[in-house]
């Protein structure tokens, strides 16, 4: 009896076994970060307006090509843009108006475990694992091409980490699986080895459709029609080109009410100007065109304005990550995304080091 | 003749040998950094006003002790503060008014080499070497107490670095020199092995006076009377106490028109509250009292509002540097210093690691 009393009293103090477990779980692993301090406003109103003005001018005067996707070009033509072949020249303000008319400023991406669902946009910050590494490294086997076993291990690691809120997408490239079915194994791993939100295939439109179809099996087709359960991360072919396959991928996600992440990949000096201000204007122009495409395909579909701005060694041509230029650019693109009212995806913990050393640590900290 | 022509033409293009050397020197080694992007405004107007209000309340209700320096206490009494023994209780707003009446918001610290003189305050940022390390480490001899040879080597290293704008002060503690004459060797090293601006002794008032007297030999007494050529970095005995020797050091620098750096050293949980907001209010109260003392001693003397806020492991009592708390506190104290209109000294590249590893790198990057 005494023992039982003590046990009961302990349980009561701790809120019971379930209460205790639940409480600890929530404390150790928040679903995402909610900012309680303001973002850094690096650029003035005037500077931001000039970058926006320049993005509009790039689109109106140079234009943006969606190469090989006549349907996408037609969507822009019917919305009021001039088109010639695959080149689209929207008048100033049109693209911003299309986006602001229907693109949600924030949305929930649902996870298999409801407590892991994440808010994307507004004051929420969601940390996701790295994306797209062709190589993996460990102490025992050194550097090698990634395999599906590595992929599954990375999914498990992200699942175990309380500081990664998302399962990510191509956490490494599993080259031991044939390309035509690789995406199925990748999405399956995210669905079965983690309960966090995840990303689907973007290599072709049918593979994007497969990823979404798998979500319909997991979440139910009706739920998927009404809620975001998967993201697709699409890069432009900077400067100012979107491949027709990529545009069909964007439209596939949008048509299914799922979120396309629209990411210009610009290394200053290679696919864009060396000046950060110029690269920002180009990045904004390209990303806005992709976000607008999602709204033309399905008004109200969730979408994310992305960016991957970095610098290049002008001597060797090598990409240089973790430098001051992208750190400054990310703060500016954050301001531009907030003004546009669209959620932002930023490249995060980047560095130029090839090993996990002190350089990797301080460059990554500066990038974050 | 042909050879001479080519040489002449090369010289002309490069602006002549002297022009070339001068141009490179300036480009590689700016005297200090001039901010061209705004500081991060973390706290709202309302939050800052609450911290200031709380600092005033601490001073009025609890008071601040200058232990053993009756002259300093009398200065505050004559300025309108209540005093009892060594305890000073200024009415709300008095200290801020004393500071804002005469303390310069920025000033020039002159260096032996005029091109190395630094602006302190306003939009200028001056990077100085670390201060006060008792130990030094190298690969050959490992960790040991610092010597004057180490001290001289650190002065030479800071002189050689284009990214350190200042020669610093106690770059390490040279324990092989007797304490009563150690400050003379330290100041001599800064004067002869570097041409950058430097700091003097603060361990006793006569040693502070010696440091200034050496400056009179180097710069001329008249120049020193009119211009800042040396800084003295003085810590309070937090919480809310200033040792009489420290206050006499502050007054010695101020009386000679030289700049006292007034630095509360607060580890949350040891010498102040564990909450960052509470520690900030205490820090502001202590630092303002020291800056006000400089103005009561000599109105218009340059002074710097300092801070060294960090956290403590509440389990072991060990100081923990490089944590998020001081990074947040430094941004807030920056805002408070700008509102007060006094130059700021912040602890910089801090970390909790004992070796130059990845942890040291990312914690230092975050602190900076």
Structural class estimated from helices and strands of chain A: alpha/beta
Determine the CATH topology of chain A.
TIM Barrel
The SSE order of chain A reads HHEHEHEEHEEEEEHHEHHEEHEEHEEHEH
Q: Tell me the radius of gyration of chain A.
A: 22 Å
Return the CATH class of chain A. Answer: Alpha Beta
Question: What does the model show?
Answer:
The structure is a homodimer of 368-residue chains. The first copy, chain A, is α/β, with parallel strands linked by helices and 368 residues long. Chain A has one domain (33-367): Trimethylamine methyltransferase-like (TIM Barrel). Helix content of chain A is 47%, strand content 18%. In chain A, the strands form five sheets. In chain A, strands 10, 11, 13, 14, 15, 16 and 17 form a seven-stranded mixed sheet that branches. In chain A, a hairpin with a 3-residue loop joins strand 8 (135-138) and strand 9 (142-145). Chain A starts with a helix and ends with a helix. At the A-B interface, helix 13 of A face helix 13 of B.
